[in-house]
Amino acid sequence: MTIDNTALSTPDAHTAVRLGQRWPAIRAFSWIGAICIVAGGLVAAVTRPTGFAMGSWLAAFLVLVGGVAQLGLGIGQGWIATSLPEPDLVRSELTTWNLGAALTIAGSLTKSPVLTTVGSLSVAAALLLFLRGISVSPPELQRQRLAYRLLVWFVLLSTPVGIALAWIRHG
User: Fold this and answer.
1) Are 71 and 34 in contact (CB under 8 A)?
2) Kind and range of the H or E element at 43?
3) Which one, of 86, 79, 158, lies nearest residue 123 by Cα?
4) Cα–Cα–Cα angle for 140, 142, 148, nearest 5°?
């Protein structure tokens, strides 16, 4: 499906219509993010009754990293970028982000700081790709671009903290 990006430069382009036109670039982030939020809620619901020791951490990680951050990054990129992100870039972001999240979860559950570190590095690589995806944005969206960059840098700077905690707990 080809999208006419010239229609996105009109004054009313920064509305819900803009996101609708950009649905192909944000669809996977939206679905996977929503699934992670629901999964995190389910994990939270069964954590106490089952005595799942890592349940609260896993629920928080699924909701915040797998869900909220992924939604913010994917939808934000679709909203802020001047043109639709290239499909190869979106695939790379999705792959590195979700592989990193899965490896981080696996490393934490198996008490493997090496696996957690590899997962965290994959998440960091995805964050750099997300920054690349919004390298050009319309002047009227500069505040949104700044907020997006702050989200990316917040997650990126929290990554070494997670790695350090993994090594302290399981190293």
Assistant:
1) yes
2) helix 23-50
3) 158
4) 130
For the CA atoms of 98, 108, 60, 119, the dihedral, rounded to the nearest 10 degrees, stands at: -30
In tens, the pLDDT along 48-83 reads 999 999 999 999 999 999 999 999 999 999 888 888
Whether the Cβ atoms of residue 135 and residue 92 lie closer than 8 Å to each other: no
What is the predicted pLDDT for the residue at 141?
A: 86
Note the pTM of the prediction, 2 decimals: 0.86
Instruction: Decide if 81 contacts 90 (C-beta within 8 A).
Output: no
What's the CA gap between 78 and 93, in Å, rounded?
A: 13
**pLDDT digits 0-9 by tens, 9-47:** 554 545 666 667 888 889 999 999 999 999 999 999 999
User: 106 with 120: CB under 8 angstroms?
Assistant: no
CB contact set of 84 (below 8 Å; sequence gap of 6+): 3, 5, 22, 24, 25, 78
Which of 13, 145, 3 minimizes the C-alpha distance to 87? 3
- What single string gives the DSSP state of each residue in 85-115? PPHHHHHHHHHHHHHHHHHHHHHHHTT-HHH
Task: Name residue 171's amino acid.
Answer: G
Structure-token pair, residue 24: 């192909």
Closest to 59 in 3D by CA, of 47, 69, 70: 47
